[in-house]
Each structure stands twice: as structure tokens, then as C-alpha cells.
Specification:
Strand content: 5-15%
Shape: elongated
Structural class: alpha/beta
Largest sheet: 8 strands, parallel, barrel
């Protein structure tokens, strides 16, 4: 998850926190199936024991989160995170009061394509160390198994294979599981058709209930969440109505009204919950970026380069959402360390959804990861902060990476059309040129050796190089507007447009339309 899409999207806002970074000196609700460890956020700070009025003088901690499950679900298509990266994310989660991590990468063959096969010793050992790392961080490690591509739901052999896989994971200390039936065929094979006249929803409910009853009898700590095949929407369908027959202790994941959503409200969650007979667990398909990458790359053995990073703070989640769901788990990017920047803002929302701490937590994580180059990292994140959008047909796309830059571009073009090259002496044009210069010089400042988190530097390096080049492209467009008859400027911009049109990475605002508009404006002469 998420399913593939062919449309493209870019947030309808821009966060300006450079001043905050400078001032800071750039230094460093009840759970259903998977019951997370108790939150530490509700405890109060201790007052000095010598004070006779210590209770009155103690400083109360923040109120408990309304979300029982708060965390991350590694549920993307593409290479799974490394063990080291996963341990880094788990440590981050522990620091940010996130309590649930679901391991469900779609390209782990032992959980999906070859789910019947046991893990070899080396891979099992790695999972065991991840589970131990989660425990150390106060995070519940949940394992996702995805048998739906080829399971015969009524087959005793397949059920035995499913139970055997769970037993193997239990041997390394895993007691919480996700039965992931997302993105699988919505029909039954011939053997199941004879057993389940009600269709594949009846088959899936029967399998989940059997699994719950069987495993709970073996392991009192066993818990189960189901990801249904119809995992989004707010309208009752025969499939979703059947889910109400699941055992009440089985959780149900839901991505919101759509697969990738710009916003989710409590009313929408309550509507879905009324259909399935329980509060859903939100599988938030943000900041996941697998869907910006060609399927051939995700399924291949070569390098994967997503076409966007989603580095802005979370937005669009209802402050009252916690009243209608059991929790929120975010599906992150293929880049684990880059994911920490947006996830920090989500963690703040989950702790206090009515507050405005998300942007502060976002800025703080930039400072932590960027170290002495926090300002450069903030520039990079500002330029790469798209957010989901949904069109009237229900297709998802992404907003501009930096709408503030798009606004400046439009101001400059509008002024140029009225007064010509003299418009480039106005503030908007200077601000735009300054932004392009920042882009141009970002890459060397964000070298892995210069960041506090070298792994983050390695993850973003390809897009840093693109942003640097795009900064030069923007300056070339302004140069042509300043000297519209210059043959050299015309030739440079033509080459920039050709290169940008062929560039697979979407980055740095709606730059290509600006270059083309600048070219046309220069030809028209302005004024």
C-alpha cells in the first residue's frame, strides 16, 4: 500500500521557520487488537522530596494522548529498510512517545510472495534484534503477514502454514500481528467458492476469526489487526458490512476516505467505524513516497529513486480524530532517516492534536539531524514539502513542493508583462533570485560528512544535486528576462527546459512551467 497512481501531485502552504532556527542557534481511544505499552506522557514530573507541599509544587506532565496506537507501519513497496535503519527509527519513536511499529514491507518475500516459507536463520535473527530494539524503546513490534496473493482461505494446509509462520515469529518474542489483505485479488479460487458463497469478504472474516481464536488459545498475549482488501472509503459496501462479523478484539486498518488522503476527519472515521462495527486504526499513507516511483524500479533489483520526498510537517488531520479511531500509524518513505523529519511533526500531533506543536517538533528534528548545517537542511526541506491532493475523480496527486516560490514566480511574470525588465528590480524578483541561489548552493552544504546524521545526507544526496541544478535553471530564466535579446541566455534556457522536461525527479516547486513562461515572456518583450 498505497496502490499505484499515474497522476502527479505537489502543500497548499509554506512554513517559514528560518528565523526560529537562527534564534535557536541551530543547535542541537482505546486500542483494539494490538495493545501498546503504557504511555509515559501522562506521568508527572517529581518535585523535591524535601518539600512538604511536593504534590502541589510538582509540574504536571502533558495529558495522555487520545490515540492508543501511535507510530509507524513500514508498509511501502520497494527495498525494506535495513536493520540498522529500523533500529534508528525505533529509537526515534521511543523518544517521541510513539508506541507501535508494524513491520510489513511489501518486498519482504517471506512476509508476502513466499509467506509459506520460514525465515532463514540470518533473516530471523535480524527480525529478532529489531523486536528487541523495539522493546528497549518501549515500542510494540508488530509483524505483518500478507498471504492474500495466493492463499486458499479454506485450505487447512495454508492455515497450518500461516500458524507456523506466526509460531516462528513468536519464538523471537513477537506477539502482535497484522493480517494484511490489502492489494490482493478480490476473488476466490474454485475451492473457496464452494465453501464461501458470500464471497471473499466472508472468506477473509472466517480466516481472521480462526486465526484469532487459534493463536489466542496458544498465546494469551497474541493480538491481531486486519488490513482489509477494501481499506478506504466511508460508504457501506457488501464487503465492508461483512467486516462487522470479525471478532470484536480484531482491529481493522483504514487509510481514510481515499488511499492517499490530504485530510481525515473524525466524522469520516466514525462513518467507517459504524460500518465495520468498531473504531478503525488509521493507516496514514503519508509521508510514503513509493507511488512516485515507477513500478519497474520498485520491483527490480537495481537502485530505487523516488520522484519526491515529503519533508513538510503533517497537516489535514482533524483535532478530534482521536475520538473516532484507536490510533494512527504512518506509512513512511523509502528513506528512513529523511522520514524522521515529517514523523516528528506527526508525533507532536498524536500527543496533542489540538495544539500547534507539529511545526516546532519539525524544526527541532531538522536542527537535530542537520547540526551545524541545520539552516541548509531547512532550505532543502522547504523546497521539498509536497502534500497529497485529491481531485474530483478521487485520483491522488501532489501539491507544489514550495507554493511560496510558485507565488513569487507568478508575481514576477505578471509584473514583467506590465513593465518589462524593470520589474526585475522589484522585491519579489530579488526574493526569487535569492531563493534560487539558496537552492544552487544547498548540495555541498548537505554533504553527509557535514550533517549530524550522515545517513540522512546519503539519502537526500541525489535530490540535493537536482535542487542545486534547478536553482541554476531559475537564475537562467531571470537572466533571460533581464536580457531578452541575448542569444546566450536564450540558448541556456532552452537547454535547461529540455533537461528539466526529461528529469525524472519532481523538485523545487513548479519550476518547468516557470521556465517556459519566462521564455515566452522574453519573446513577447514584456511591457
Amino acid at each position: 500500500m498505497p496502490r499505484r497512481a499515474t497522476t502527479h501531485w505537489r502543500p497548499a502552504w509554506a512554513v517559514t521557520i528560518l528565523a526560529a532556527l537562527v534564534l535557536a542557534g541551530c543547535t542541537s481511544a482505546h486500542p483494539t487488537a494490538a495493545t501498546p505499552p503504557a504511555s509515559t506522557s501522562s506521568s508527572s514530573a517529581s518535585a523535591p522530596a524535601s518539600s512538604s507541599s511536593s504534590a502541589a509544587q510538582s509540574t504536571p506532565g502533558p495529558p495522555p494522548s487520545p490515540f492508543g496506537e501511535r507510530g509507524v507501519i513500514e508498509g511501502f513497496y520497494g527495498p525494506p529498510w535495513s536493520e540498522a535503519a529500523t533500529l534508528d527509527v525505533l529509537s526515534f519513536m521511543g523518544r517521541h512517545d510513539m508506541n507501535t511499529f508494524v513491520y510489513d514491507p511489501k518486498n519482504d518475500n517471506y512476509s508476502r510472495a513466499d509467506w509459506r516459507q520460514p525465515y532463514p536463520a540470518a533473516e530471523l535473527g535480524s527480525l529478532g534484534r529489531m523486536a528487541a530494539g523495539a522493546k528497549d524503546a518501549g515500542v510494540q513490534f508488530v509483524y505483518g503477514i500478507d498471504p492474500g496473493m495466493d492463499i486458499t482461505y479454506s485450505s487447512q494446509a495454508d492455515r497450518s502454514a500461516l500458524a507456523a509462520k506466526i509460531a516462528q515469529l513468536r519464538s523471537i518474542g513477537v506477539h502482535a500481528f497484522v493480517l494484511a489483505l490489502d492489494d490482493v485479488p478480490a476473488q476466490l479460487d474454485a475451492a473457496d467458492q464452494a465453501v464461501y458463497p458470500g464471497g471473499y469478504a466472508q472468506a477473509q472474516v472466517d480466516l481472521a476469526n480462526w486465526l484469532w481464536q487459534t493463536e489466542r488459545a496458544l498465546d494469551p498475549a497474541f493480538s491481531l489487526i486486519m488490513v482489509p482488501t477494501e481499506y478506504h472509503g466511508t460508504t457501506a459496501t457488501p464487503y465492508l458490512t461483512e467486516l462487522a462479523k470479525l471478532d470484536p478484539a480484531i482491529g481493522v486498518a483504514w487509510t481514510g476516505p481515499g488511499v492517499v488522503e490530504a485530510s481525515i476527519t473524525a466524522a469520516q472515521a466514525a462513518a467507517f467505524g459504524a460500518i465495520i462495527g468498531r473504531k478503525p486504526l488509521v493507516w496514514l499513507n503519508w509521508p510514503v513516497n513509493d507511488w512516485t516511483t515507477p513500478w519497474s524500479e520498485l520491483e527490480g533489483s537495481g537502485p530505487v529513486q523516488p520522484r519526491d520526498l515529503f519533508l513538510g510537517p503533517v497537516q489535514g488531520l482533524d483535532p478530534q480524530l482521536g475520538t473516532a479511531v484507536t490510533g494512527v500509524l504512518a506509512n513512511p518513505m523509502l528513506e528512513p532517516h529523511a522520514s524522521l523529519i515529517p514523523l516528528a511533526s506527526l508525533a507532536a500531533y498524536l500527543q496533542d492534536p489540538s495544539g500547534n506543536g507539529g511545526q516546532g517538533a519539525w524544526a527541532a528534528e531538522i536542527r537535530r539531524l542537520g547540526g551545524s548545517e541545520a539552516q541548509a537542511l531547512e532550505t532543502f526541506c522547504m523546497a521539498e514539502q509536497p502534500y497529497p491532493t485529491i481531485n474530483a475523480q478521487g485520483d491522488y496527486a501532489r501539491t507544489s513542493t514550495d507554493p511560496s516560490v510558485d507565488a513569487l514566480e507568478q508575481q514576477v511574470l505578471a509584473a514583467y508583462g506590465s513593465v518589462g525588465a524593470s520589474a526585475l528590480r522589484q522585491t519579489a524578483a530579488q526574493d526569487l533570485a535569492d531563493t534560487f541561489k539558496l537552492w544552487q548552493h544547498t548540495a555541498p552544504e548537505l554533504a553527509p560528512s557535514k550533517l549530524a546524521d550522515a545517513s540522512l545526507g546519503a539519502e537526500i544526496a541525489p535530490l540535493c544535486r537536482v535542487l542545486s541544478r534547478d536553482g541554476q535553471d531559475g537564475l537562467d530564466a531571470l537572466a533571460l528576462l533581464a536580457a531578452p535579446t541575448s542569444g546566450t541566455a536564450q540558448t541556456r534556457l532552452e537547454a535547461d527546459i529540455a533537461q528539466l522536461a526529461a528529469q525524472p525527479v519532481n523538485f523545487g516547486g513548479q519550476l518547468l512551467p516557470f521556465l517556459r513562461s519566462a521564455q515566452n515572456a522574453a519573446r513577447a518583450g514584456g511591457g
